[in-house]
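Chain X:
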Amino acid sequence: MMAMGLLISGLLVTTLVQEPRGLAQAMGFSMILGTGFVGLLFTYSMLADLIPQDAARCGRGRSAFLFALLNLMQKFGVAAAIAVSYLALDLVGFDPKNGTAAAREVHLIFALQPTVSWIVMVGLLLWMHRELARAS
């Protein structure tokens, strides 16, 4: 997951240096960036692996509840991403009437914001790993 995040972040930053030219290059960028959404599918397979363990631990099946909870958390994540994007646009003073300058602002935000988010996530995971190792 971290490697996928680094790959996508690297590609997003690369688009700042060279914007896609032509349909083939734009399709290539889009296909690679689309792999970032594969993680949304992996959560269902991970949950399917967790459900039997949860049923054995709790003594009853809670698969419907767990799938509903997973969907709810994904919806919260999507809503948070939209909120952060609009806040970032407001912070830079986005005005769609500015034409090319506005397009560049949007490009910067949508390339750098996920990269910064992935860096923060990796830092938190490393910190949690260290804290858990220290606790045990």
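Chain Y:
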Amino acid sequence: MEENAQPLFTFGVIADIQYADIEDGFNFLQTRKRYYRNSISLLNSATEKWNAEPVQPSFILQLGDIIDGFNKPRKTSEKALETVVNGFSKCKAKAHHAWGNHEFYNFSRTYLMNSVLNSKHLESTSEFQSSKHVEENNPEPSYSYHFSPAPNFRFVLLDAYDLSIIGRGEPSRKYYQSLKYLREHNKNKNLNVPPEPTGMKQQFVEFNGGFSREQLDWLNDVLTFADNNQEKVTVMCKRKALKLNFANPPIKSTARFTLNTSGVPFQNPHIERLRTHSIESSGKLKISPEQHWDFTAEDLKDLGEIGRGAYGSVNKMVHKPSEQIMAVKRIRSTVDEKEQKQLLMDLDVVMRSSDCPYIVQFYGALFREGDCWICMELMSTSFDKFYKYVYCALDDVIPEEILGKITLATVKALNHLKENLKIIHRDIKPSNILLDRNGNIKLCDFGISGQLVDSIAKTRDAGCRPYMAVID
């Protein structure tokens, strides 16, 4: 891009406002603190920043959960919604609203269809008419539409709760279809409790949702139109990335997946088609509590490859504005389901361990040409390489004091995982213990970690066999 070139368009993104006029609390799983009243201050700050941008955003993507479900029992849903809508009214750009589970905790689908949260009037209709019949003839239509902010670009809003038991009443065909499917996979009395603590079956919960066949057929028509017109497509909804190369980061540990009625995850051809429409993205880089940066791939200078695996490569890079050197894990968009699970588990652990000095730190992530780039703290070497250097190159031994420090740091990292995250590592080996020139020792590679249930670890044949305990 030329130095003085102007962008074709810009847009803002905000999600999970979850406003309620109540004291601070925690989420359903008691793992994250919620600041309910302060969320309005954050919305106002975002609005002020958007309005002050030299290039005004063309639109805002509001990704759902605009007010919290706690409003419903207090009968404050409409008042809370009015408060948040007033915050959005200060913004010069129009907002496109996605619907999440908290919208349906507070309101019925009929109410939402007739509310200010229905932004379907912003849909682009002049360029594309061929698939309108798909949803218009549906007695239970989804809340989905598309728009084009500039030539060769299209945004699609999907209804992630099209199949769900929240928001639709009992006479609904989709309600009964969703309830039947949930009960087939979740035998718990409380359907908000996952049937299993880890793995793909976590998706089968009441607060989740999915895409109907009708909506996916409609999406297929939109993508066909985009293909024929060489458009780049961005998909938005109250849903985390189904594939690592989707165009709507960030990836989070709470990722929810589609209620796929085929029973085979990630095989829907309509969803797979989105891979061809991945676009560049920017991200947030948090190097320290005081250092926060908006960044793109152009802000990173590649200093060379330092490792390679089945998922892709690890490169040493420097963030040019801050001069921070880091390790960037470049994950291919074609990773299979097993690799994806391990990558998400690894990312989940490091993102939730920012307060532990014995675990490698996560800085941020972005998308580049369909691949996901994960920026991590760069260490100098691993324990296995350090061992070989001391014994082979120096013909020496590692002092007991150093071995003690390595052992202590490793145990403290494992204790943090167990006590704070209810996780066991399951792949402790020298190559997963990292050291730097300042004497810091940190644990890494949590891809096959296991979740603790009632303080008991689920055991299975997992880990690197040469380092596994011998079982008679």
